[in-house]
Amino acid sequence: MANLIEAWLEAQGARKVDGEWLGAKEGDDAGLCAPLAHFALYRIDGEDAEAFLQGQLSNDVRQLDGARAQYTTYSNAKGRMLANMLLWRDGDGFFMLLAADLAEQVVRRLRMFVLRSRVNFQAADTLPLLLDEPGAERLLAGLDLAMPANAMQQTGAAGVTAIRLPHAGVLVVARDGDDSRLSSALENSKIGVAGRNWADGRFVASGFAWVVQATQEAFVPQMANMELLDAVNFRKGCYPGQEIVARMQYLGKTKRRLFRVYSAAPLAPGMPLQGAESPETEIGQVAYAAELPDQGCEALVVVMVSAWEKGIICPSVDSVLTRLQLPYEIPDLDN
Q: pLDDT of 125-180, one tens digit each?
C-alpha cells in the first residue's frame, strides 16, 4: 500500500500539504528522491489492451517488451495534446503515468472508445518516486535490482520497477501495489527527501513538459518537442490527430517550439507570453515550470521560433525570459 511509503516520508520529516509533499532534508552523498504525488498511475490490462492503446496513442505500443518504456501522447482530432504520458509494459498489462490534475478526465475519455474491446483501467495504489543518480544507485542496490543504464531502459524484480528517464533521473514504482519491500529499502538507504519543485526542476532540465490541465489542447506534439523525445512514431499507423501530426512533420516547418528559460519571477503553466517589442501580440505560453531554491524559476515555454530575435516577456509577472540550453538539439533553429 502507498501508505507505507508515506509513513517513511513522514519519518524523514516530510510534510503533506494540500496533497503535495514538501521535502525535508538533503541526503548528503546518498542522493535524493521526491514523491510524485502530482502524478497519477494507472494499470491498463485486458485481452485487447495493446491493440486499444496502439489505436489511441502516438507511439508504437507494440515495441514495449518489458525492458524499455516510452513517452507517448494522446491528442484530439485536431492533433492537440490532451495528455502526454510515460507508458511501460508489465506482465500482461501496462502502466501509464500522467499528470494527476487531468488523469481522471483523460481516462474517462479513453474509456469512451473502449466499446466492446476487453480493456480495463485501474488506478494503481502506489506512490511513484523520482530519484537522482546517487539515490537510485543506493536504493536499487538495496533492492538487488539492476540500475537502468540507458534512457528509457526498464528493470524490475520482486514487485519493483525502475525506469531511467532521459536527463531527468530514475523513476521507481512498487508495481503491484505492495510497497513493503520498497519502503524497507528506503528506510535503509539514507536517501534524502526532496519536494515537488526539485522533481519538476529535473523535468524542466530534461526538456520534457508534462501536459497539465492549464495546457490541455494547447500544443501539437511537435510544438512541445515530443518527437525529439521519441514520443511519436511516424510509421505506426492511425490514432486521433495522426493526420495533423504527420502533415506538420512532412509538409511544413514547425513554427513554434519548446524552449527552456529562466525567469526572475515565478511562472506557471498556461501563462501567456509576448514579444518584447510587440506586447500586444501573444506568441506562446508557459508549458511547465519549477521554482528554484534560492530565487527565480526555470520553465519550459512554447513560443514562435523567430521570437527570440527581439526577446520574450511574461506580462503576467512582468518578467523577461532568458533562454537556457536544452539537452537535445532543436532542428528548426537557424542558430
A: 999 999 999 999 999 999 999 999 999 999 998 889 999 999 999 999 997 667 88
213 located within any domain: no
Beta sheet of 120-123, edge-to-edge order: 70-75, 81-90, 93-99, 39-45, 120-123
- Contact present, 215 and 270 (Cβ < 8 Å): yes
The grid cell for 266 is: 515565478
The whole-angstrom separation of Cα 218 and Cα 107 is 19
Whether 28 and 130 map to the same domain: the answer is yes
Cα angle 135, 90, 8; round to 5: 35
Question: Nearest 5°: phi and psi at 113?
Answer: -100, 5
Q: Which amino acid is at 29?
A: D
C-alpha cell recorded at residue 129 = 518516486
Based on the fold, state whether residues 195 and 116 are members of the same structural domain. Answer: yes
Q: Is the pTM of this model over 0.70?
A: yes
Supply φ then ψ for residue 209, to 5 degrees.
-100, 110
Residues 169 and 290 in one domain: no
- CATH code of residue 280: 2.40.30.110
How far is 246 from 223, CA to CA, in rounded Å?
13
- Domain boundary pick from 204, 231, 265: 204
- Closest Cα partner for 221 from 243, 201, 236? 243
